[in-house]
Specification:
Elements (H helix, E strand, L loop, with lengths): L2 H13 L2 H10 L11 H18 L3 E5 L8 E6 L7 E7 L20 E3 L2 E3 L7 H18 L5 E7 L9 H7 L8 E4 L11 E3 L1 E2 L1 E10 L5 E2 H4 L6 H10 L20 H6 L25 H6 L3 E9 L8 E2 L2 E10 L8 H11 L6 E4 L8 E2 L5 H14 L4 E3 L8 H7 L4 E3 L15 E2 L1 H18 L20
Parallel strand pairs: 3-6, 3-7, 7-18, 8-17
Antiparallel strand pairs: 1-2, 2-6, 4-5, 5-19, 9-16, 10-14, 10-15, 11-13, 12-14
Helix pairs in contact: 1-4, 1-13, 2-4, 4-13, 11-13
Length: 474
Amino acid sequence: MTRTTALAAAYRQFDSGEFKQVLARRIALPTESQNPERAATLVRYLEEEVRPAFEAMGFECRLLQHPKARAPFLFAQRIEGAALPTVFGYGHGDVIRGLELEWHEGLTPWALTEREGRWYGRGIADNKGQHSVNMQALANVIQARGRLGFNAKYLIEMGEEMGSPGLRELCADNKALFDADLLLASDGPRLRPGRPTVFLGSRGALNFNLSIEARQGALHSGNWGGLISNPGIQLAHAIASVVTPTGQILIPEWVPTSLPEAVRRALADCEVDGGANGPQIEPEWGEPGLSPAERVFGWCSFEVLAFKTGNPQMPVNAIPGSAWARCQLRFVVGLDPDDFLPALRRHLDRNGFAMVQVATTNDEMFQATRLDPDDPWVAWATASIDLTSGKKTAVLPNLGGSLPNDIFTDVLGLPTVWVPHSYAGCSQHAPNEHLPPELLREALGVMTGLYWDLGAGGTPASRSAASAQPVGAA
């Protein structure tokens, strides 16, 4: 078979409804990792869906455990030759809570439902639909060629929506087993629904709390107004000192000194578009002088996620004794994360806000990562995608959101190329999560083409032949 016939077979497979049936079966498993009652379902997903699919392709599979993780990881590999390139894939089968009562009438998170040209179901975008596309594309290449033509390793976890507990340690403990030349994985949204996209890393994310504890309890605003401080007002002013009224960050340690030329060049033709359901971009918000793509993919952003003072549900005529805010900094490569909170402390003290307390949260901090857009793997991947789709692939230096990508770059030492199969308006993590089937169909062709080209030669040089370690070795 040729590349063309392999792609034609992939599209026929999708059009037949077979892929939809597989995806419906996987969505039907309520793999909510935040719900302790779903622990057995997390294992079922690996044992009943993922393992049989990989074993049918000739992969060796094993479950890997780590004490920090609530569920095991499934590792699968197919080694075809020590001299061949080795590609590492990753996905997660857990989903955010279903929020069953909040879906549109007639829709449920646990049934794949087609309505008005969309497929609905929890996990269709994040991440069951995406890794199911990649797994099917691997099967398409094996069926068409009789082999992959490269070595494939794949790790599916069941705790990404909980911050991937144990993933970092698992990768550190299994560096030899996971050795590869490239991470090729799928998560997150495309730049625009109809434009194939690659991203090369992710922004980091730091969540933290700001609070003021002025006194015990609230005091009557008529008796004490004008005589005692109001923590809500003080905290609002403290936050206002961090950013301008249009969202520009005012702490120098929180932003890069400049936008790297390779990043600016890559983003020059990237237009941010969340689709029909996405919000309208506000041109005056954020760092001045940058395009929307540069602001979200090349710069940092500060957000107030929640703010509480007094009793919002039942306000009374009293000056609150305390105020609290949950804040977040999204950051890019080139900054010192260890100095973020010390820099904030210095800033608050300089500006007269010594009463504001700064505290970390229990959330894991995702580190910022970015593969150089000029890396040979980027040119190779985009050429393959362009050929399959007939479109120019958007290259994002990093995702605007956060992923555990630093584990693959820093622990495993892999160059990382992500090919997302979703879009920003998909209602990910919200009720009514969905994808257009035409996006999934195009993604299946894109990944079949990528995996076909991986086995056809002409890839960037392999790092080593050590990636052919037997699956039973640890």
